[in-house]
Design goal:
- The protein has helices at 10-23, 31-62, 67-73, 79-89, 96-103, 109-121, 126-133, 136-145, 148-162, 167-175, 197-220, 229-242, 244-247, 258-263, 281-288, 316-325, 363-369, 401-425; strands at 178-183, 189-194, 254-256, 271-273, 340-343, 358-361, 374-377, 383-386, 392-396.
- The chain is mainly alpha-helical.
- The protein folds into four domains: 10-164, no CATH class; 178-247, no CATH class; 253-292, no CATH class; 294-426, no CATH class.
- It has a three-stranded antiparallel sheet, with no helix packed on it.
């Protein structure tokens, strides 16, 4: 990976970080100084990894030892990590903006690896690779701004639109599905299941639902319930004992916008599972041939319905609406399925079970909120988080707001273009 050393000299970054370390010992850092240190430390690590990628590129140019072998032996890396370093080096020539961002420490290593892996997946069709390379500047901007999980999801939608909407990847993923079982010397049975994302989500949803049912039964009987691997194992055994006829088909929640269903994939397309796995349109249409369909209408701000104070627990319709607005915990990247629905104004204090008073929180953040952290939602569902001492910690816009507004703009643009074409024809 080649970059302009005069613009982003690694030595200067290292000197700056060394100066920061020399100013005061880590034990004396206050919170603000610790945050500055983490930011500087991570940037320095990324710059050094960028230098390593540049070295890998040079090794490939020399044509002797492969970069993968050198980093696996001299660098003491695993084979998988050495392969990732080697792939990073291939981005230098076709994606100079991405390479410069990585060398400058602005782009996280995980995001660089996601780009390199995406380019590798598209290698079977040169036109797909060329189309991805043409998004160099856009990729660099997004990779610098997004955390790895969000960027990976965004990048997947980009590669799906460039290629064949993910059909090839989905078929390839399904071909790798496998199940292996064996009995150990102590007589215990072991199994290892390796599934594509969609099939895995079906299995996980079935296990989670059955585990919740068993937990409720045990709780109602006065037993102490411990959620975890043991309860999951009981759920699997229960599902097998009950048989498929009694329990019905595996379920999976799919979120798709109306325009995609009626007119096909477009710039504002949304078509993914509840866990965030993007689906090829053909697979989605096949699922819809025999499925329960619930519609939830989002306005331009990304907000959805409310049901008042008739229930304390969020209804299925509300959970569906919240899932559409929040694919993860409102404060972090924990999946929505693993979150609890929190009343911002508590039910005991008159808080309604309306969407404008509900928010998904993971166990850790839910516990923090009940220990003094403060949450406020405005009319557009912008979330303000306050510390226990009253100071504002962070403000987070509604995750679904930007896509919703984008779809509204795209619809208006298509409508205006259609009306202009009609006027011209007349």
């Amino acid at each position: 990976m080649v970059a302009d050393a005069s613009r982003h000299p690694a030595s200067a970054v290292l000197r700056d970080h060394a100066d920061l370390l020399d100013t005061v010992s880590l034990e004396c850092f206050d919170e603000a100084r610790a945050i500055d240190f983490v930011r500087s430390n991570e940037r320095t690590i990324r710059v050094l990894e960028g230098v390593g990628s540049a070295a890998a590129g040079r090794l490939e140019q020399l044509g002797g030892l492969s970069a993968e072998d050198v980093f696996a032996t001299a660098g003491k890396h695993s084979t998988a990590e050495a392969r990732r370093i080697s792939r990073r080096a291939t981005l230098a020539e076709p994606m100079p903006a991405v390479a410069a961002g990585f060398m400058g420490g602005a782009i996280a290593t995980a995001n660089i690896d996601a780009i390199a892996a995406a380019r590798h997946r598209l290698r079977h069709n040169p036109s797909w690779v060329t189309a991805l390379d043409g998004r160099d500047r856009s990729l660099a901007r997004k990779a610098a701004r997004m955390n790895p999980k969000r960027f990976a999801g965004w990048l997947r939608t980009v590669t799906d639109r460039i290629s064949d909407d993910g059909i090839t990847d989905q078929a390839s993923a399904e071909e790798k599905n496998s199940f292996r079982s064996y009995t150990s010397s102590d007589g215990r049975w072991h199994g290892r299941l390796n599934l594509d994302a969609v099939s895995g989500e079906k299995v996980q949803n079935a296990i989670d639902a059955q585990a919740r049912s068993i937990a409720k039964q045990r709780s109602d009987a006065g037993d102490t319930v411990h959620h975890g691997e043991q309860l999951n194992a009981a759920a699997i055994c229960s599902l097998i004992d009950s048989g498929n006829v009694k329990k019905g088909r595996p379920s999976i929640q799919v979120i798709v916008d109306r325009d995609t269903l009626t007119g096909g994939v477009w710039d504002g397309t949304v078509k993914h599972t509840g866990a965030g796995t993007n689906l090829p349109l053909s697979q989605l249409q096949q699922m819809l041939c025999d499925a329960w369909i619930t519609h939830t209408v989002l306005g331009p701000s990304g907000r959805a319905l409310a049901v008042g104070r008739s229930h304390r627990t969020a209804t299925d319709a509300q959970r569906t609406a919240l899932r559409i607005m929040y694919p993860t915990c409102a404060l972090c990247d924990v999946r929505f399925d693993y979150c609890e629905i929190h009343h911002i104004i508590e039910w005991e204090h008159g808080g309604p079970t309306d969407l404008n008073n509900l928010i998904p929180l993971c166990t850790v953040h839910h516990e923090r909120v009940h220990k003094g952290w403060q949450l406020r939602l405005d009319g557009e569902r912008t979330l303000t988080i306050g510390r226990p001492d009253g100071r504002t910690w962070k403000t987070i816009p509604l995750p679904s707001a930007t896509p919703a507004r984008t779809r509204q703009r795209q619809r208006r643009h298509r409508k205006n273009r259609h009306e202009r074409s009609l006027t011209t024809t007349e």
